[in-house]
Specification:
It comes from Ciceribacter sichuanensis. InterPro entries: Calcineurin-like_PHP (IPR004843), Metallo-depent_PP-like (IPR029052), PdeM-like (IPR026336), Pesterase_MJ0037-like (IPR024173). The chain is built from 4 helices and 16 strands. It has helices at residues 3-6, 53-59, 68-83, 106-116, and strands at 19-23, 26-30, 36-38, 43-46, 87-90, 120-124, 139-141, 143-146, 149-152, 163-165, 170-176, 179-188, 193-194, 205-206, 222-226, 231-235. A hairpin with a 4-residue loop joins strand 12 (179-188) and strand 13 (193-194). The protein is globular and about 45 Å long. The two termini are 22 Å apart.
């Protein structure tokens, strides 16, 4: 699915196209474009932007189409315009490698600065970019605790209550019209939440993969799958294996 075409769907302005749930006592909204909105906190959360992935591959001699950063930022701009958050939290792997932030072209740097103007912007450090960002608005941190929630890049097997994280790029598969459909998803059991990867060139890991073992109460686990113009909420037991 073309993520840019997704933005043009009229249903994106329909509140019924999003999924609403409660995470550790906090109201949460899963937007079809892949951002999480926390209205009580005035916060928009996004994960795994992997900006400059094409440039990172080019530096290693493997050429990919160089349009990923622009496409990802356009989708994020639309989400920020739609929800007008006071705080933006980006949950790590903001850039695809440790030098992507420092080498970011000025036209992309200016777009990020425009999005951040008048807002708090928090960059969570990820495994791809552990040293934070360079010359960009906002602050960098390994994790933050705010409003009863913990924001970090990698999920913790020890302290999961109220955790919002990324890293694993969750996807889920369902059957639709006699075909199996695999989509990125938000995954939550009401206690913790795993975010879908937001970058347009990111892959995904099926929610039934062993990497997710022990993270959720599977009896309560729901996958909120990103469709073309809405979110589809499916209980874990109803997903295809």
């Amino acid at each position: 699915m073309n993520r840019l075409a997704q933005l043009k769907a009229p249903a994106m302005d329909d509140p019924d196209c999003s999924a609403r749930f409660v995470l550790n006592g906090v109201e949460a909204i899963a937007d079809p474009c892949g951002v999480l909105v926390l209205p009580e906190l005035g916060m928009l959360v996004v994960s795994d932007l992997h900006l400059e992935k094409g440039a990172a591959f080019a530096r290693r001699g493997q050429l990919l189409p160089p349009y990923d950063t622009l496409a990802t930022l356009r989708i994020l701009e639309a989400a920020i315009d739609r929800h007008d958050p006071k705080i933006v939290v980006s949950l790590g792997d903001n850039f695809h490698d440790s030098v992507g932030s420092a080498l970011l072209p000025s036209l992309f740097r200016d777009r990020i600065a425009a999005m951040a103007r008048g807002r708090e912007w928090i960059w969570i450090n990820g495994n791809h970019d552990p040293d934070g960002t360079s010359d960009l608005p906002g602050i960098s941190a390994d994790e933050i605790i705010f409003g009863g929630l913990t924001f970090r890049h990698e999920p913790s097997l020890i302290a999961g209550k109220g955790e919002i994280s990324g890293h694993l790029h969750p996807c889920a598969t369902v059957r639709r019209r006699e075909k199996s459909v695999r989509r990125p998803c938000f995954a939550t059991d009401g206690q913790r939440l795993l975010m879908p990867a937001f970058g347009v060139m990111t892959g995904g890991l099926d929610l039934r993969h062993r990497a997710f073992t022990g993270l959720f109460d599977r009896a309560e686990l729901v996958a909120h799958l990103l469709g073309r113009d809405r979110v589809y909420s499916v209980r874990f037991a109803n997903l295809l294996g």
